[in-house]
Amino acid sequence: MNLGVNIDHVATLRQARRGQVPDPIIAAQTCEKVGTASIVCHLRQDRRHINDHDLEKLRQIVTTKLNLEMSCTQEIVDIALEVLPDQATLVPEKREEVTTEGGLDVIAHHARVAQVVKSLSLSGIMVSLFIDPEKPQIEAAKQAGASCIELHTGKYANARNQSEAKRELEILKESVKLARNIGLQVFAGHGLNYENVKKVTEIEEIEELNIGHSIISRAVFVGIECAVKEMLTLVK
Ligand code: PXP
């Protein structure tokens, strides 16, 4: 299984002082050096962490896969079409949220999602939809023309007890099976950490896990190189 590291929180720390450090570009280079399969960043409409300049620099230096998380707003779509990340992951975005709260509602926004999937795909960008592990959303993602999905692992990660975690894990497994059966590539992420990731790695059909906050938090104590290596050991 591959690991994609989300480096947004390196930029969050930089933005705490609106300065130059820590530099998410150096973080991306370090992640790649120790073996991550992709670099993930989210250019939010409010630019609260990653900014346009970071994205341009990341496009220049990332040699594995640059995965841009993005909303379907025209401003961000235009930027994606210009920067041409290897992959775009469409996510819902609310200004007041602390982090991406739920999956994209592909059913409610079907026409717009399908339009964005088409325009990004025509430019050679692989498009993934970040959705909740629910059958109707998985089927809608396929209908919208996506070739891959990222299943939201938040409910599993935030489970209050073992039986809830077990139930959410079963839901993830069923969702992965369904998605693979209809020809979608499957990624997963959100809220995964050094304790809860193992069970998810046992779902073999998931190709890639995207993890951010827990790795950057661990990096504060052990350094980013070590934090990424520790997660790579668990994921591989
Ligand atoms: N995948 C997606 C689509 C996300 O929006 C995020 C959070 O930015 C992540 C993965 C990583 O989540 P976490 O920071 O909780 O590991």
Brief summary:
By secondary structure, the protein is an alpha/beta fold.
What does this structure look like?
This protein is α/β, with parallel strands linked by helices. The protein has one domain (2-235): TIM Barrel, CATH 3.20.20.70. 47% of the residues lie in helices and 17% in strands. It has 11 helices and 8 strands. The chain has helices at 8-15, 24-34, 52-61, 74-83, 110-122, 135-143, 154-157, 162-181, 197-201, 213-222, 224-235, and strands spanning 2-6, 38-42, 66-70, 87-90, 126-131, 148-152, 185-189, 208-211. The chain has an 8-stranded parallel β-barrel with strand order 1-2-3-4-5-6-7-8, surrounded by 8 helices. Helix 4 links the parallel strand 3 (66-70) and strand 4. Helix 2 runs parallel beside helix 3 and helix 10 (213-222) packs across helix 11. The longest helix has 20 residues, at 162-181. It is globular and about 45 Å long. The structure holds pyridoxine-5'-phosphate. Pyridoxine-5'-phosphate binds at residues 6, 8, 42, 69, 89, 91, 99-100, 130, 150, 189-192, 210-214.
Can you tell me the CATH architecture? Alpha-Beta Barrel
Runs in which pLDDT lies below 50 for 5 or more consecutive residues are none
Termini gap = 5 Å
How much β-strand is present in the residues? 15-25%
Would you report the number of β strands? 8
Number of domains: 1
Overall pLDDT score: 97
CATH class: Alpha Beta
**What is the overall silhouette?**
globular
Bound molecules: pyridoxine-5'-phosphate
**Helical residue percent band:** 40-55%
SS summary, helix count: 11
